[in-house]
Structures are given as structure tokens and as C-alpha cells.
Design brief:
Length: about 350
């Protein structure tokens, strides 16, 4: 069993706090993705779990064992980092075999594992090449293969697909997902790519300024953002937010509509809806069309609503025109509300 517990982990670099009291339990065999914008602390958190960075505060547990005082090699983990340090003077085969030789595995087992992982990562034809002669994307796949060959209980990956072109990235993403699910490994995977996060994760921990804002399944973070930041970070285009003012009988007025909403002492809260969760009709949010972008299967319509930008994804045959006044009806079960001060969901 290789469950991981990150307990009250903080990291300060001089006067700068990169992580504030992060708590994150990760289940055995779970695929956890750390997602957030550049500088939010993802890599720092991963490096702390790996043992490459010491926390200023807090504990890290792996498989029921406290590991934050142990060196990396005693933590039972394999790592793939952004710079995918492969040894240029070794062949691809020897790079993948490296950790297995350190473990003194018999030659037949080494060969079997190297060939199998090379095949998984589509680099079997490169095994005899020197790693110094490979492209960035090929080196990256060697680094992933080397980690997988160790058959570790825990694998930590920092943007392992960042150097691949779009098509290969898509293919590798699916491969990795399959391989890691089959290998019963517990994975922590860092990315700033939300599509990659959604596709791979059992759970996504959304990070912002050194904190985990929400840790939940991809569907949950998409449908029920715990805070405004999550709704605005996840989704392309992101969630729309419109000010709502208190109306009679506990309802709220939003851009010309009166809607039932949460109980609150506040006079103003925020209404939120995703672009695909509105329909053009006879009743709805009052909107003026500004820009129309046909996307093939859908049309992205950017509107003015209450003086702010609002994006709607409509049917491609919606027939709207620039300057037209629209009524955009939000799907009732998809409406979310946020507290403008705490920014938390209501
Ligand atoms: P990216 O996606 O760009 O790699 P990240 O979310 O992984 O970003 P981190 O690398 O964890 O971010 O960095 C978090 C913050 O801590 C950043 O503001 C960074 O500048 C700072 N930081 C990281 N390492 C150090 C260090 N050794 N000394 C000082 N500040 C650091």
C-alpha cells in the first residue's frame, strides 16, 4: 500500500512563502494531479514529497511511514522531472536500465523490463542510440520509461509531456493513463495544462498562490468549483460571473432575470454559469452580441452582460448577429453562486 499524506506542509524561501500549510491525502493507487498557474507552488510541493526540498513545516508520509527526514532514495519513489535528466553518454537501453542495475536485478529481468517499458513509450527502435543524440521529446520518453521500469509504488512526474508536439502528447497521455492504471502505482503529476489534468486525474488538486483551493474529481472541480478561482481557471473559455443583487422573497436579480438562489445576508453576491450552459431563447440574461467565432461544431459568442464580458457556446446554426440583443437562459441545475468577499461557493 502506498498512500501518501501531506500534512501541514509549508515552505518558505527567505521571506517568501511558496506553500502555506498544505494538507493533501492521496489514496493508494490514486492518480493525483497538481494543477495551477506558473509559480503557484506545484513543483515545490512535488520536490518536498520527493525529498529534493525540505519543508519549513509539516510532515510527509508514504505507505504509513514518515519520510520527510529520509533521503530521496529511501522513499520508494521514482521521479520524472521537467528537465528529465537522462545521461547523454549512455544508450537509451542503459538509461532505462540504470535504476535496475543499481538494484542488482539479474540481466534477463533487466532486459525484459527495459524492452517492455520502451515498447510502452514507443521508443523500442531507439534503444541502441546514445541519449545525447535524441530530440527533447524522445529524451522525455526515455525519462518516463526509466521511471516506469523501476515498477515503483509511487511515481512523481513534473510536466513529463511538456516537450512533445501536440499529437504525440495526446497519444502519450492516453498511454500513460493506461500504463499507470495497470501498474497499480500511486501517482502525483504536476501540470499547468488543464486538459491534461482533466484527462489523467482521479482527483485534481487546484493550486493558487501556495494553497490548494480544491481537491476533487475532474467532474467535480469543473461542475462545482469550491471557489471563484477554480471556475475561472478551469474551462476554456472559463466560467462567466455576473453580479447578483437581492430581490424580493429571497430571490436574486441577475442581468434582467430574477432567479431563486442561496440564502445570504449580503445584498450582492455573484452568479456564475459555464459558457455551454446557456441557451438562446425568449427569456434569459440580457446580452448584447459583440463577437461571433464559429468553432465548427459550436459557435463561441462573446456578449456584453451587465457591462462585463460573457461568453456563450451556442449551436453553430444559432444565427446570431453582432449588435443583436440576446436572451440567454441559464440551465437551472448548472447555476452556481459565489460570495464576492471570500470568493467561496455559496
Ligand atoms: P512552474 O509551473 O512555473 O514550474 P510552479 O507552480 O511549479 O511553477 P514553483 O516552482 O513551485 O512553482 O515555485 C513556487 C514559487 O516559489 C515561485 O514564486 C518561485 O519563484 C519560488 N521558488 C521556488 N524555488 C525557489 C528557491 N529555491 N528560492 C526562492 N524562491 C523559489
Amino acid at each position: 500500500m502506498a498512500e501518501i499524506a501531506i500534512k501541514g506542509v509549508a515552505k518558505r524561501f527567505g521571506g517568501f512563502t511558496a506553500l502555506h500549510q498544505v494538507d493533501l491525502p492521496i489514496a493508494d493507487q490514486e492518480f493525483m494531479v497538481l494543477l495551477g498557474a506558473s509559480g503557484c507552488g506545484k513543483t515545490t510541493l512535488l520536490r518536498i514529497v520527493a525529498g529534493l526540498e525540505t519543508p519549513s513545516q509539516g510532515e510527509v508520509w508514504i505507505g504509513g511511514r514518515r519520510v520527510d527526514h529520509l533521503p530521496p532514495r529511501e522513499r520508494g519513489i521514482a521521479m520524472v522531472f521537467q528537465n528529465y535528466a537522462v545521461f547523454p553518454h549512455l544508450t537509451v537501453f542503459e538509461n532505462i536500465a540504470f535504476g535496475l542495475r543499481m538494484k542488482k536485478l539479474p540481466q534477463a529481468d533487466v532486459e525484459c523490463r527495459v524492452n517492455r517499458t520502451a515498447e510502452l513509450m514507443h521508443i523500442e527502435q531507439l534503444l541502441k542510440r546514445y541519449s545525447g543524440q535524441l530530440s527533447g521529446g524522445q529524451r522525455q520518453r526515455v525519462a518516463v520509461a526509466r521511471a516506469l521500469a523501476m515498477e515503483p509504488d509511487v511515481i512523481l512526474m513534473d510536466e513529463p509531456l511538456s516537450n512533445l508536439d501536440a499529437l504525440l502528447r495526446l497519444e502519450m497521455r492516453a498511454e500513460l493513463k493506461g500504463v499507470l492504471a495497470a501498474s497499480k502505482t500511486t501517482t502525483i503529476y504536476v501540470t499547468h495544462d488543464q486538459v491534461e489534468a482533466m484527462s489523467l486525474a482521479d482527483r485534481i488538486a487546484v493550486m493558487h498562490q501556495g494553497r490548494i483551493v480544491q481537491a476533487a474529481s475532474p467532474v467535480e472541480v469543473y461542475r462545482n468549483p469550491a471557489a471563484r478561482f477554480v471556475g475561472s481557471f478551469i474551462g476554456n473559455p472559463p466560467m462567466n460571473f455576473i453580479p447578483a443583487t437581492k430581490a424580493a422573497n429571497g430571490s436574486w436579480s441577475v442581468a434582467g432575470l430574477t432567479l431563486p438562489g442561496p440564502k445570504s445576508d449580503k445584498q450582492r453576491i455573484e452568479f456564475a454559469i459555464r459558457p455551454e450552459d446557456v441557451d438562446a431563447g425568449s427569456e434569459g440574461l440580457h446580452a448584447t452580441v459583440r463577437v461571433i467565432e464559429p468553432l465548427g461544431p459550436h459557435t463561441l459568442v462573446t456578449c456584453d452582460v451587465e457591462g462585463g464580458l460573457f461568453r456563450a457556446i451556442l449551436e453553430s446554426n444559432a444565427g446570431v448577429k453582432v449588435g443583436e440583443q440576446l436572451r440567454l437562459a441559464p440551465k437551472p441545475d448548472r447555476i452556481r453562486w459565489f460570495d464576492p468577499e471570500t470568493t467561496n461557493a455559496l
